[in-house]
Design a protein that fits this description.
This protein is mainly alpha-helical and 66 residues long. It is built from three helices and no strands.
Length: 66
């Protein structure tokens, strides 16, 4: 989907250099992937402490069943 964006040229050049990308498109796409990954990780981190662990659960026993 073609899109026109006003992107900070200095920031884009730095991202190109740091990422070793050959094109602006690849740089922006990788930046978006990284942004999405980080947001998903943040969502997962918010679950810590929200799930109760079953102290009686034996993961080694479950592995042997396979």
């Amino acid at each position: 989907m073609p899109t026109n964006l006003a992107i900070d040229e200095k920031l884009l050049k730095e991202a190109l250099r740091l990422g070793g990308f050959k094109t602006k498109k690849n740089t922006v796409n990788e930046a978006l992937r990284e942004y999405v990954r980080r947001k998903k990780q943040k969502e997962i981190l918010s679950l810590f402490g929200a799930v109760e662990m079953d102290e009686a659960y034996d993961y080694k026993k479950e592995r042997r069943k396979r």
